[in-house]
Amino acid sequence: MPTPLADLSLPQIRQRLNLLLVLGISLTLSVVLITLRVFLAHEIRFVFLMWNLFLAVVPFGLSTMLSLTAGRLKARVLLPVGLVWLLFFPNAPYILTDLFHLEPRPGVPYWYDLALILSCAWNGLMLAYASLTDMQALVTRRLGWWTGWSFATIALLLSSFGVYLGRFLRFNSWDVLTNPLTLFYDIMHRLLHPTDHPATWGVTLLYGAFLLLGYATVRLLGKTGEEVA
């Protein structure tokens, strides 16, 4: 029975390994910065960022699994795993909003905390874009270019809405199972009465536009690099 990597060409395998290496080094830097801060300040204030980084890795792990095995997986497997991916996907760009925690604090230089949070935010954003690239490729392969980009746009807008739910209403991905009624009520109330919740749509649309422009830029930079090479 062929291994998942057997579905990929040698350049694709090399590209995937290089991506994993760079992301691994970048995540390690964030973990080191968080750990050093614990020793510098003798407090665990930013340790929660490690959990946020773990949640950001989950959708990338799922998309990588789907990408490596897409040649053999059927729609009945791809769809439920894709829904789980979509449920966890907002956790990756959510880390950008952890910049809310940035303020001068005694014991640690302000610039250090800025570098620490920016490092985590960058990793969250790159994990989100890498994961979405995988998922968009799967959709494009089956349904075409336009459907692929429509999927990416909708996924980023939904993730922006998820970021709002997490940052301002304090919901998380687990609430789909542990607190579904309250989550459903709050979502429906905002859908049925949009004018009562301007912050919901302000965050969703502005954050979504920012994420979409960033994603398109990263994809175009990748294409430019390929053409030059």
Could you explain the architecture of this structure?
With 229 residues, the protein is mainly alpha-helical. The chain has one domain. Helices cover 77% and strands 0% of the residues. It has helices at 10-41, 48-69, 75-88, 91-94, 110-143, 145-167, 175-178, 180-192, 198-228. Helix 1 (10-41) packs antiparallel against helix 5, helix 2 runs antiparallel to helix 3 (75-88) and helix 2 runs parallel beside helix 5. The longest helix has 34 residues, at 110-143. The radius of gyration is 19 Å and the shape is globular. The protein starts with 9 loop residues before the first helix and ends with a helix. The chain crosses the membrane at residues 20-40, 46-70, 77-96, 108-131, 143-165, 199-218.
Quaternary structure state of the chains depicted: single chain
Number of helices: 9
The figure for the number of domains is: 1
> Level of helix content?
over 70%
Question: How confident is the prediction overall: mean pLDDT?
Answer: 91
Number of strands: 0
Q: How is the biggest beta sheet arranged?
A: none
Please sum up the structure shown.
77% of the residues lie in helices and 0% in strands. With 229 residues, the protein is mostly helical.
Features:
229 residues; mainly alpha; 77% helix; 0% strand; globular; transmembrane helix
Helix/strand layout:
Layout: H1 10-41, H2 48-69, H3 75-88, H4 91-94, H5 110-143, H6 145-167, H7 175-178, H8 180-192, H9 198-228
Helix pairs in contact: 1-5, 2-3, 2-5, 5-6, 6-9
